[in-house]
Amino acid sequence: MESITNPLYFFTGSSSTQNHSSTSSNVIRFIDILDFFFIAHPASGRKEGEEHKRIMYFHPKGESVDRQTEVTGFAEAVVNFTDNFLTSREINSHDSDNFDYRTVSTQKTEHVYIQIEDNNFLMGVALSKQLANVSEYPLFQPAIRSILCDAYKMFRMFFGTYSSFNHQENDSKFKDRLDFFFSRSVPLLKCHKMPLLDHLGGVEFLRMSGPLYLNVVSLINELQEEFQQIDKIMFLYQDKLLYYQLSRRDLPTIFRYLTQNLLPNSIGPELEGANNRAKGRYLRGPIELSTDEPLLGDESLPVVHLFDNQNGEDEYLQRYQMLVYRCLNSTVCMFVKYNTENTNVSRRLLRNIDQFLESELSQVANRIGEEIGSEVSEPTDFHYIYFNPSSLSMTSSLSSRSSSSSKVAIPPVEVNRLVCDTIGKFISDSEEFGECFVKSETDWWIVVKKVNSRLLVLIIPPSSSTSSLADIQSKTSHIVRHHFDAIFFT
Amino acid sequence: MVLLGESAVGKSSLVLRFVKGQFHEYQESTIGAAFLTQTVCLEEATVKFEIWDTAGQERYHSLAPMYYRGSQAAIVVYDITNQESFQKAKNWVKELQRQASPNIVIALAGNKADMANKRVVEYEEANAYAEENALLFMETSAKTSMNVNDVFMAIAKKLPVGPTQGQDSQGTVDMNQPQQQSKGSCCK
Amino acid sequence: MEIEVPGGSLNPGSGESGVGESGSEKSFSVLQVDLADEESERENEKYLDEEKEEETAEHLLERLMQLPYQVFILSESGRPIFVNSGNEEQLCSLFAVIGIFVERIRLWGDNLITISSNNKHIQFLHKSPLIFCIVSKYPEKLDEQLDVLFEQILSILSKSQLENVYKKKGDNYDLRKLLRGTDRLIESSVSSWRGSPISFVDSSISVIPMNPSDREFLANTMAGSLGAAKLEGALFGIMIAHRQIASYVRFKKYIMHPRDMNIVINLVSDKSLQLSDASTWTPICLPKFNDTGFFYAYISYPWQSQNIPACLVLLSVKRDHFDGLNEVKKSIVEKLEGNSKFFQNFSAAVICPNLFNISQIGNFNESLWSFIYLNHSSKQVCISASK
Question: Where do the CCZ1/INTU second Longin domain residues begin and end (chain A) (predicted)?
Answer without folding.
Answer: 230-358
